[in-house]
Amino acid sequence: MTQKRAHNFSAGPAVLPLEVLQKVQSEFTDYRGSGSSLIEMSHRGPEYTEVDRQARERLSRILGLGDEFEILFYQGGASLQFLMVPYNFNTGKTADYINTGSWSKKAIKEAKVFGNVHIAYSSEETNFNKVPKDEELKFSGKGEYVHFTSNNTIFGTQYHKEPASDGLPLACDASSDFLSRPRDIKRYGVLYAGAQKNAGPAGLTIVILRKDFLEKARTENVSSMLSYPTQVGTLFNTPPVFGVYIFNYVLEWIENKGGLEAIDRLNRKKAGLLYEELDRDDFYKGTAEKESRSLMNVTFRLQNEELEKTFIEESKEAGMSGLKGHRSVGGIRASIYNACPMESVEALVAFMQDFRKKHG
Ligand SMILES: Cc1ncc(COP(=O)(O)O)c(C=O)c1O
After folding, report:
1. Is 156 close to ligand 1, i.e. is its CB under 6 Å away?
2. Is the distance from the beta carbon of residue 297 to the nearest atom of ligand 1 less than 6 Å?
3. Is 105 exposed, middle or buried (0-12, 13-18, 19+ CB in 10 A)?
4. Tens digits of per-residue pLDDT, 11-30?
5. Atom 10 (ligand 1): residue with closest C-alpha?
6. H/E segment holding residue 210
């Protein structure tokens, strides 16, 4: 029986590589002859230990982490990291935050619980349609780190290189463009990402900490579950084993594709096709400034909300899912993460062309 696979443009949880899903499916109830699924075994046993080790090794190789970084496989989503970053590094101090959308705002709100927050830039006045140029950033001059959201999932904007940071370590919410391209990783003090877009299922959060920055984390009178120094290097509590299991295969898939450079080339191609279609005339209107456009979430509007509703309905009939914009902004959003196949993007472009002919 051939299986139905939708052209899935969900913003997250999002499409995963079919090969990965099939591999997990094939061994799910009997993991390598053990008679149990990997998610039914001890997280301290040899099977999971090996998966965990492989995932760390692959991630380290893909990002070029070397010996300078620690990796945590965590639960609680990126939202818990909004809290943990300031809890560890900005209690009673000052940190600089760049506000480029709803997720940045949530990070800022949490940071204010613990310390002073200096807003180095905000694009809120223009409805978050861009990310800053370096010269637009106004730093406090006394920050512990500079926090930014490298891809703004809701507003369809993305930094195409790391922002200036006044010599400070970067703290980054990379949830929606994690492993989508190479990064200047040495500039990051802490980088975190919920897995459910580019890396695996919801329930796993990847946290990467530079060791010299980690040394600055508070250690006195801390809550163990919230303390990076307590968590690093141990399985302090049960890790999200299912998430790490899938993540390990996604990392293998990335390496088989040729690593982040190759993935980046593919992502540019996919996004390029969609933006070319948006720019053809003014039937579709991209919402992000051109220089800030995201390669992961392509956001656009049509002439009116009625037509947007029709677009969504007709796209579903054409076998596409997940194209509705975030509930807070409306419009259309095509999320085209790493695992979204080129064929899905081509199908969407063809659909957009037909839709324009029919309704333009
Ligand atoms: C950029 C960004 N940050 C944070 C979050 C929140 O992640 P979580 O639900 O895993 O806490 C999301 C979720 O979509 C996101 O896109």
Report:
1. no
2. no
3. middle
4. 999 999 999 999 999 999 99
5. 77
6. strand 205-210
- Closest protein CA for atom 2 of ligand 1: 175
* Chain segment 164-191, per-residue pLDDT in tens: 999 999 999 999 999 999 999 999 999 9
| Complete domains list, the chain, with CATH | 21-256 (3.40.640.10), 259-359 (3.90.1150.10)
Ligand 1 pocket mutation, candidates 176, 178, 204, 335, criterion most atoms within 8 A of CB: 176
Sheet with 332-335, strands from edge to edge, namely 285-286, 297-301, 332-335
The 10 Å CB-count burial string (b at 16+, else e) for 32-43 is eeeeebbeebeb
User: Which pairs with CB-CB distance under 8 Å and at least 24 residues apart come from 80-85?
Assistant: 80/205, 81/173, 81/192, 81/205, 81/207, 82/106, 82/107, 82/109, 82/110, 82/111, 82/173, 83/110, 83/113, 83/226, 84/207, 84/226, 84/228, 85/111, 85/145, 85/147, 85/171, 85/190, 85/192
What ligand 1 atom has the least distance to the C-alpha of 151? 1
Contacts of 269 (CB under 8 A, 6+ apart): 342
How many helices (H) and strands (E) are present in the chain, helices listed first?
10, 14
Per-residue confidence at 329, pLDDT binned at 50, 70, 90?
A: confident
Catalytic residue among 103, 253, 270, 324: 103
Q: List the catalytic residue out of 173, 253, 270, 324.
A: 173
Residue 9: what pLDDT?
Answer: 98
Best mutation site among 153, 177, 204 for ligand 1, i.e. most ligand atoms within 8 A of its Cβ? 153
> Is this prediction's pTM over 0.70?
yes
| Centroid of chain to Cα 7 | 20
